[in-house]
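Q: Please design a sequence for this.
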């Protein structure tokens, strides 16, 4: 389970919880899917009408810093500039649009 993003139910506000060995992944588009490993890997998109994605950045100082410094400060490393790919020290990985979403949330300093 990622320490940097999760999903909450839009009606109840409850956090998505895995069943057995399930886990969430973030697509390049920024949408989430549930991965269920087993004899075969089953990947099902998370219904965005029911679930909302939440990215958890650290609180940042008000000073202006560039994207790479911001990512490094929050445990991310840029693996590739084109296509834009980043990896967090906890193993989370984001690419293209999903990586841009992470940067935007870090810039806003949202919890």
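A: Design:
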């Amino acid at each position: 389970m990622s320490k940097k993003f999760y999903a909450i139910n839009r009606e109840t506000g409850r956090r998505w919880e895995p069943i057995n060995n399930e886990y969430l992944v973030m697509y390049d588009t920024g949408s989430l899917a549930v991965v269920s490993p087993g004899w075969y890997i089953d990947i099902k998109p998370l219904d965005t009408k029911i679930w909302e994605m939440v990215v958890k950045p650290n609180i940042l100082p008000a000073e202006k810093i560039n994207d790479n410094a911001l990512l490094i400060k929050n445990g991310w490393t840029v693996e590739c500039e084109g296509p834009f790919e980043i990896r967090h020290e906890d193993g989370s990985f984001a690419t293209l649009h999903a990586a841009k979403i992470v940067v935007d949330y870090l810039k806003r300093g949202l919890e």
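Q: Thanks. Anything notable?
A: Residues 5-108 form one domain. The longest strand covers residues 76-81.
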